[in-house]
Design goal:
The complex is a heterodimer. By secondary structure, chain A is mainly α. In chain A, helix 2 packs across helix 3, helix 3 packs across helix 6 and helix 5 crosses helix 8. Chain B has one domain. Chain B is 70% helix and 0% strand. Chain B has 4 helices and no strands. In chain B, helix 1 crosses helix 2 and helix 1 packs parallel to helix 3. The longest helix of chain B has 21 residues. Chain B is rod-shaped and about 65 Å long. In chain B, 24% of the residues are buried. The chains are: A mainly alpha, B mainly alpha.
Chain lengths: 191, 82
Amino acid sequence: MENVMDTTNPTATIKCWVELYSDSMYSWALHKTSSKETAEDLVQETFLASVQSFDKFKGDSNPKTWLFSILNNKINDHYRNSYRKPIVDGNAIFETLFDSDDQWKRDQRPQQWTDDTEHLLDNEEFQKTLQNCMGKLPDNWYSAIQLKFIDEKNGEHICQELGITNTNFWQILHRAKLQLRKCIELNWFKK
Amino acid sequence: MNTLMLSCKKASELIYKQSVIKLSIKEKVMLHMHTSMCDGCKAYQKQSELLDKFLQNHLQENETNVPQIKNNELKQQIISKL
């Protein structure tokens, strides 16, 4: 049945799409998840799902656009799922940074960043450092950052949907920022 | 007097809060008093704003302008599963 006619053969068509688009889909998923394994899983799931729903694909739309829309849904589902999995000890970051009087520990006190910070955004090496530091965040902190952005950008109210009270959500983002700052200082400014 | 003095931990919380909503007058005064005396928190406040910029910029990238990475293993793996 598979080889009767190539144009109506979903598998052959999708194999061709894998050749054409899997690299750019992987690059995108990696950018959005900061995890090689997760990115690979999501791209693979996208192609497997595209076989299942191949008849929903309308030949007049761009296959790449269609595949990316499936992928983006999967990425967002991934954020939702990993946000729901609480991390072991969310307070550890405070204990790392602050002493028993809640003052910065001597070796953790933020130092002024001396580099020219204005041009860092155009610096590819710095972007890599940022990406690595984001990848080191606990999964649900990372997802919280992404979800907040999606909420703000699309007004999707995912945060409400996940039952995140404002205070709770802030606490997570606050911790994530403290940790990111530390990681960037160590891996960029003090390198 | 001590009730007016923030700890660094509390100050860092207010610095975060400030990036999301307006602080009350009292919070603003307390944070200002703290950062005028505490170099660590003063630096953190500045860096926190920078971090927001970094993140905003990172998250705003779209499909076409992220660095392209080849992954042939993945390609072969998917094809074998189709």
